[in-house]
Amino acid sequence: MEIDDIAEIIPAGTAAAATGAARKVFIKTYGCQMNVYDSQRMSDALAADGYAATETIDDADLVLLNTCHIREKAAEKVYSELGRLRQLKAERAEAGREMIVGVTGCVAQAEGREIIRRASAVDLVVGPQTYHRLPEVVKKARGGQKVVETEYALEDKFEHLPQPRKAEVARRGVTAFLTVQEGCDKFCTFCVVPYTRGSEVSRSVAQIVTEAERLAEAGVREVTLLGQNVNAWHGEGADGKEWGLGRLLYRLAEIPGIARLRYTTSHPRDMDDELISAHRDLRALMPYLHLPVQSGSDRILKAMNRRHTAVDYLKLIDRIRAARPDIAMSGDFIVGFPGETDADFEATMEIVRQTNYASAYTFKYSPRPGTPGADMDGHVEEKVKDERLQRLQKLITEQQHAFADGLVGQTISTLIEKPGRQPGQIVGRSPWLQPVIVDEKAGEIGDIVDVRITKTGTNSLFAEAV
Ligand code: 5AD
Ligand code: SF4
């Protein structure tokens, strides 16, 4: 599963003025890319019901917080935002204007009705499995009810959600997310996902292909397949056979217009031969793989219920690199899991040295109520966690810089994505997800062009057209 800890706040909105619709919705997204995708789909569902999206909270009649529950800090952020919204709602009430406040996402699923008890501003709580019911829930809330909708729906929500709107897809840009799988059956002992997102469900091949074609028709060049455990995706193919993610990627690579494919986040246990072969065969499949290992200590991996050892992981990476030598690795690490000793942590440092990451995310262990890890003995002191996190981050930053420095002087392919901050510049994306800043003469938005890297910035590359 992929969650970048930046807890990016991304309004899923559009220029509401363009539609002149009466009601407006503001969606604030916390957490992972799956939430970014969900916010877009909620926005599509509400648009069908007459709500235009806005990026300004002051314009909004409906405010939705699409939340993340992965670490304690992420959940706390939601409650402090709800405090601010209470104030805003009170001001609105005085002015005689309606403001409906809703909580969606994983905090909604995990805490349900408790949210309404704790935060009086909240009118509706909707879990990730029932977004297709959002328009109906909003109607009830407008009628004065407090609505909580967190049951796992029997119906397939994707069948009931409207397709992404073409104009909206085009506005969102030339890269897009596409959720193919939700939930997780792995039950790592630190993780809330199996509880908040439920057990693994794969979308059908037909649904995925139709959505990808629609994205391509709207001008999307790069599609990132999403899933909490995306490489566990499986489904029945057009040939009546059971497909895995590898086979699906071969199929998606045939869609005209789709030039780049990615997928995230994967579990090492679910990297099968066909998926590794896809990395060898498909030029469209970008040579960048987010494959979290979490720890380098077998003792801790066992306590985490990861069901693989450090050596299993390293051997797997050897196989992937043999198939695609230019692949760059990314990962997630947790420091300070209960019982982690200095020696365990050194094993984590060692696996990082051996793998050599192009980037990686590091987290301090955060006990999540209801997960087995929270009840384990040997919780690690905050100070120790801080020290370990710093050392690990330093090593990963060094590797990340070394990887970027190694690209200087090389010619690489870049997907042009958007105008740059400085006039005359445009920003593209490298095969390894780095922003590439280049002269606007290099190409138009949506083009994939070769550029020569001239120098590196903090988190980006500078390039010249070739
Ligand atoms: N504490 C700290 N980090 C966590 N992650 C998941 N649960 C926790 C937790 N309780 C991290 C894992 C996962 C990433 C998305 O978040 O590294 O891969
Ligand atoms: Fe959480 Fe583990 Fe499932 Fe990833 S594989 S979502 S870390 S339980």
Automatic annotation (TrEMBL):
Protein name: tRNA-2-methylthio-N(6)-dimethylallyladenosine synthase
Reactions catalysed, as given in the entry: N(6)-dimethylallyladenosine(37) in tRNA + (sulfur carrier)-SH + AH2 + S-adenosyl-L-methionine = 2-thio-N(6)-dimethylallyladenosine(37) in tRNA + (sulfur carrier)-H + 5'-deoxyadenosine + L-methionine + A + H(+); 2-thio-N(6)-dimethylallyladenosine(37) in tRNA + S-adenosyl-L-methionine = 2-methylsulfanyl-N(6)-dimethylallyladenosine(37) in tRNA + S-adenosyl-L-homocysteine + H(+); N(6)-dimethylallyladenosine(37) in tRNA + (sulfur carrier)-SH + AH2 + 2 S-adenosyl-L-methionine = 2-methylsulfanyl-N(6)-dimethylallyladenosine(37) in tRNA + (sulfur carrier)-H + 5'-deoxyadenosine + L-methionine + A + S-adenosyl-L-homocysteine + 2 H(+)
Radical SAM core domain sequence ranges: 170-402
One Pfam family here: TRAM
Family: Belongs to the methylthiotransferase family. MiaB subfamily.
First-listed, main subcellular location of the protein, grouped into a coarse class: cytoplasm
Signal peptide: none
Domain TRAM: 405-466
Residues at which [4Fe-4S] cluster 2 binds: 184, 188, 191
InterPro entries in the record: Elp3/MiaA/NifB-like_rSAM, Methylthiotransferase, Methylthiotransferase_CS, Methylthiotransferase_N, Methylthiotransferase_N_sf, MiaB_methiolase, rSAM, rSAM_horseshoe
Entry keyword annotation includes Metal-binding: yes
Keyword Metal-binding listed: yes
